[in-house]
Structure formats: C-alpha cells, structure tokens
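S.,

As promised, the zinc ion run. Input:
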Amino acid sequence: MQFRNFRMVNYVVYGRGSFDQLDEILAPNRKGDAPMIFLLDHFFKGKALAGRIPLQGRDKLIFADVTYEPKTTQVDQLASALKEEFGTVSGIIGIGGGSTMDLAKAVALMMTNEGSSADYQGWDLVKVPGVYKVGIPTISGTGAEVSRTCVLTGPTRKLGMNSDFTPFDQIVLDPALTTNAPVNQRFYTGMDCYIHCIESLQGTYLNEFSKSYGEKALELCQEVFLHKDKWDDHSDDQLMMASYAGGMSIAYSQVGVAHAVSYGLAFLLGTKHGIGNCIVFNHLEAFYPEGVREFHEMVKKNNIDIPTGVCKNLTDAQFDTMINVSLGMKPLWENALGKDWEKIMTRERLRALYERL
Ligand code: NAD
Ligand code: ZN
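Predicted complex:
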C-alpha cells in the first residue's frame, strides 16, 4: 500500500477583515520591483473590494472573466501577456470563487513552466514550481482554496493540473468577502461542499483522516442550509470553514457519482460545477439515499430552483460523449462503487441516468 504524501497550503489566515492584512502578508514575498498580479473576479468591477486591493509600484489588477469556467487558452493568454509585459512577476493573487482561484493557480504555474497549460492536465506533470500564489475565496464551497488541483477545460478534456506545485502558498479566509454572494449561487457552490462530504463519507476510500474533516464539514453545511431560519454573518463564517474542511476531506479520499456524472454535463453542455452537481445529485437516491433526501429538504427550505430536463434534446452521439467523459473518471467511480464499479455502472445504466436529468 502506497499512502499519499500530499502537500498542503503553507500559510492560512482566517477571520473577518483578515483581507486587510494582505499588504503586510505580501511584503516579504515581493522580489525587487517585480509586481504582484491581482486577479479579481469580474463581479467586483466598480465594487468596494476593488478599491481595497493593496497595489504597490508596478502591481497590476486584472478582472478575471469567469463567465465560463477557466480554459487552458485563457490561462495561456494571461500568462504570456504577463511574461511579455513584466518578464517576471513576484506573485499571482486570485480573489473570487473556484474559477478565479483555479485561474490564479494555473497562471502562477504557467509563469515558469514551458508550453501550454493543456500539456499539464493530468497528474504530476508539472515540472517546476510556479511563482508565489495566494488564494482568497469570495464564495464558499469548492475547496479550491486547499486542493492540489486547478480544473481547466482544454482542447480535449476537462481536467486539472494536479501536482504538488499546485496548492497555494497562502490563503486568506475572510468570510466578510462572501456577504454579497447571490442566494442561488451561494447555494450551488455551498452544495458542492455538501456533495464533497457525502461522496467522501459514503466512498470506499474513506479513512479516519477524511472522515474527521468530512463529518465536520457536513455538520456545518446542515447547520447553515437546514437548521437555521435566516442567513447571517455567522453562516458565512461557518460555510467558509465547511469548504476548507470539505476540501481537506477529499484530499485524502475522492469524490463520487455526482462529480463523475456532472463532468460529462460540463464537457458537453458547459454546465457549471456547482449547479451541475446539484442537477445530478437531485437524482442519485439509488446511490446516496440519505444525502439526497436531505438535499431535497435543503432545496425546499432555501427555495432554490434545480433545473431539470437538461438532456432532453440530445443525440445518441452526445450521450456517448458524456458517457465517455464520465466513465473516464475512474478513481471517482472506484471510490463510489468499489473495485467492481464497471459491472455496476454500465454504459446503459449511465445513459438512463443522463436521460433522467
Ligand atoms: P465561480 O468561481 O465560477 O463563481 C460563480 C459566480 O459567482 C460568478 O458569476 C462570480 O462572479 C460570482 N461571485 C463570486 N463571488 C461572489 C460574491 N462575493 N458576490 C457576488 N458574486 C460572486 O463559482 P464556484 O462555484 O466558486 O467555482 C466553480 C469552479 O471551481 C469551477 O471552475 C470548478 O471546476 C472549480 N472547482 C475547483 C476545485 C479545485 O479543487 N480546484 C474544486 C471544485 C470546483
Ligand atoms: Zn466539487
């Protein structure tokens, strides 16, 4: 048995208002006059947060367009423009949701690694450390702040650059930054965390490490989405820690059926991660009966719309594409269903599941 020896984030600061320590945190990481590059989720254009970025000298603020989830082409363009403009930079700071944080991780890696980010989609393909990178979530749930991957859509697949060089050097967990997140999006991204917990806790890869984090994260999700009558600041504090703990839980296990199936939707239809997971999880009572029952309760209580009929007009070829993408996620299926997963999740059964979405 080979146990995973994984790298973690080096520094973590947590607390309301901790964002204001950013200048001080960055100072010792500045290399001469090489600038810090701030990638800020485009939602914040013209908002107060944009004015709180601690720009110094040649630093640059770039608004990250997250209309679509990050693409390898977008990463390559950003990295080559920065190399052209500055030669070298001191660091990349990603401030936003999972999309912006993943973009920041990928651009930081591509400042020093040759070629295209598409060359590094996979496991342990990144050759050299990237530049210094910082992740600052403004919406909670993906766990991208702690993970060793950054998910990118490339020319042939949607897959992360998974490596020991991928985790952030520093994260700033300031729940006050999540206050304005829209209710629906907050639910979809929050449910990503809930689903991470269920898939980790119900998976065959489960161990005490994953269980300890997964149970805590699950409890926090239940608290904010089910047991409270009103969303308050404390809910933002709790969901931010749920995201962190959920990410730690899957670091030592794996996600499962909802993620494997929603990757097919994302690849073919561009369905976003949070909502895609919800669309799928809504129909997974055969795999996660208790989790899906509770999910339905949370949907109702929070008055959320989960789209249905998303696969209504698809062709056989399109179903095949989704099935191929999904069945390619082998570790996810093995975690969910065990070593014999291929006998359990046949192409026919998966097609029937896609047809129900
Ligand atoms: P997101 O980053 O795509 O953002 C969703 C929307 O919320 C965007 O429109 C954004 O502008 C908006 N937003 C963000 N913060 C806001 C705020 N405070 N107020 C108002 N609007 C705000 O969504 P997400 O669900 O956080 O991230 C999904 C992405 O994360 C996907 O690309 C997925 O592949 C990736 N992901 C990565 C990992 C990982 O381990 N690296 C894990 C899970 C998901
Ligand atoms: Zn997820």
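Residues 70 and 103 are 6 Å apart (CA to CA). The chain is about 45% helix and 10% strand.

- D.
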